[in-house]
Amino acid sequence: MTGLRPTTTLWRPTGPEELRLVEELDWRAWPPRLPEQPIFYPVLNEDYAIRIARDWNVKHSGVGFVTRFEVETEFLSRYPVQQAGGQTILELWVPADELDLFNAHIVGKIEVVREFR
C-alpha cells in the first residue's frame, strides 16, 4: 500500500519490446495492446510472473523481465481474479479498450524487479 489510497501490488512478465514502450511512457503506464492482444493481464504473485518471464519471454525474446507496480485496490474490484491454471496461477484480465482507464489508476511507477537472460 502506498500513499493515502489503498493499493494492490501487481506483477507483469514483460519482454524487451513492451518494456521499451513502458520506459517511453515514463514508467507510469502500459502501452496499448496490439490487435491480436484483446486483454492485458497483470498477475497477482511474483512467482507466477517469474515463471513466465524466465520460461517464456527468454525463450521467445532472449530476455524476460518481471515488473511490479501498484494499482488502486478499489478500482481493481471491477476485474474478477482469473485462475489460469493451478492455485497460484492468478491473473486479472483487463480488456484492451480499458487499458487507458487502468493506467490512470496506477499509483507510482512501474519498476523492474527481476531480469532473466
From TrEMBL:
Protein name, per record: Crystallin
Source organism superkingdom: Bacteria
Species assigned in the record: Streptomyces solicathayae
